[in-house]
TrEMBL record:
Residues 1-24 are annotated as: Disordered. This is Cystathionine gamma-synthase. GO terms for biological process: cysteine biosynthetic process via cystathionine; transsulfuration. The gene is metB. Belongs to the trans-sulfuration enzymes family. GO terms for cellular component: cytoplasm. PROSITE patterns: CYS_MET_METAB_PP (PS00868).
Length: 401
């Protein structure tokens, strides 16, 4: 368990990078157009929902557009997969029924019994459970390491390590790992680097360009963005891995359905605008929390005093919509605050347009209690939404009065 950073000084707005839409890199354009050309047959501007299990063949073995059965491929899913690959600057995208289905497929494609992987010491709880309860009985071993400390990661790597699993910023402590440094370490060690990019979203951070082999998303979060669909994604530029992921999708079957693919596509078109609003609101929330007497530490990569602020400023376009903080008065007070907010809804998950509040130790991270990944019980995590910022600040100020 990494130590929490000290109380943060007020951030310097000049330290924040620009979060202008269309910052010249074509991201917002790709989000709206990649994989989403008007339908060839009808001209429909929105990608149609191809809600079909199977596709007619004119002659045995001859399909009309390459589709024979929707587990193997479906046009709505293809549109999403093309868009996801374009957003991450990768060559191959696969869309899964959930982030955990994507994680399971990545591990099966990348590891064999006897292999070892390194996971963050504050990994997403579901990832920890997958590795600890499902992979270990199949003969895979793992170590945890604080990924913001490259020396500690290097020390955790063994000659059987085939995968370094990175999350940055981490959940719920918002530590930031140096993706390029981890990519270099992985290359030297004969391992692959996978980055779970769920917290940052591809708008803020592009791990493949920094040397990562695979990017994973829970598209349930920022990419979908409206808390109305569960989904996952894997993106890579490695042709062999891309083929392996597509083969796993067809063989294991945990694929995104047509309607879920369509909802996710509908969400990701506005990712750039939503992320700008999430980042601006989260920065304002972090600033305000710093001044409240009931607040202990504020964890936000955009604060100049965050221990990895410089790494975050280098590899992220802006600092994200997640803010965590500790409450003076311990677990009892933290639990009370969670039920006192009116706009911030008490709920798990993150990345939707609406603001959420939660108590990690008793909610999202209950499954890691007693393990090395246990989180402080006076900690509250906010997913700052895109409501009017003054309303969000007033709600938090009231709950923490
Ligand atoms: C939610 C989440 C997952 C799991 O995704 P699901 O879509 O819930 O299966 C994985 N990693 C991170 C960082 C997450 O927040």
């Amino acid at each position: 368990m990494s130590d929490l950073p000290p109380v943060q000084p007020a951030p310097d707005p000049a330290d924040r990078t620009s979060s202008q839409a269309g910052a010249g890199d074509g991201f917002a354009t790709r989000a709206i157009h990649a994989g989403q050309e008007p339908d060839g047959g009808t001209g429909a501007v929105a990608v149609p929902i191809f809600q079909t299990s199977t596709f007619a063949q004119d002659v045995v073995g001859e399909t009309r557009a390459g589709y024979d059965y929707s587990r193997a491929g479906n046009p709505t899913r293809t549109a999403l997969e093309t868009a996801l690959a374009a957003l991450e600057g990768g060559r191959h995208g696969t869309a899964w029924a959930s982030g955990m289905a994507a994680a399971d497929a990545a591990i099966r494609a990348l590891l064999r019994p006897g292999d070892h992987l390194v996971i963050p010491d504050d990994a997403y709880g579901g990832t920890f459970r997958l590795v600890d309860r499902i992979c270990v009985p199949w003969g895979i071993t793992y170590s945890t390491a604080p990924l913001h400390d490259p020396a500690a990661v290097a020390a955790a790597v063994t000659d059987r390590t085939r995968l370094i699993w990175c999350e940055t910023p981490t959940n719920p402590l918002l530590a930031v790992a140096d993706i390029a440094a981890l990519a270099e370490l992985a290359r030297r060690s004969g391992a692959r680097l996978l980055v779970d990019n769920t917290f940052a979203s591809p708008y803020l951070q592009q791990p493949l360009a920094l040397g990562a082999d695979v990017v994973l998303h829970s598209t349930t979060k920022y990419i979908g963005g409206h808390s109305d669909v569960i989904g996952g994604a894997l993106v890579t530029s490695d042709d062999e891995l891309g083929e392996a992921f597509a083969f796993h999708a067809k063989s294991m079957g945990g694929v995104a359905g047509p309607f879920d693919s369509w909802l996710t596509l509908r969400g990701l078109r506005t990712l750039a605008l939503r992320m700008q609003a999430h980042c601006a609101n989260a920065a304002a929330v972090a600033d305000m929390l710093l001044g409240l007497p009931k607040v202990g530490r504020v964890l936000y990569p955009g604060l100049a005093g965050h221990p990895q602020h410089e790494v975050a400023a280098r590899q992220m376009r802006d600092f994200g919509g997640m803010v965590s903080f500790t409450v003076v008065g311990g677990v009892e007070e933290a639990v009370k605050v969670c039920s006192r907010t009116r706009l911030f809804t008490l709920a798990e998950s993150l990345g939707g347009v609406e603001s959420l509040i939660e108590h990690p130790a008793l909610m999202t991270h209950a499954s890691v209690a007693g393990s090395a990944l246990q989180v402080p019980d006076d900690l509250i995590r906010l997913s700052v939404g895109i409501e009017d910022v003054d309303d969000l600040l007033a709600d938090l100020a009231d709950a923490l009065a």
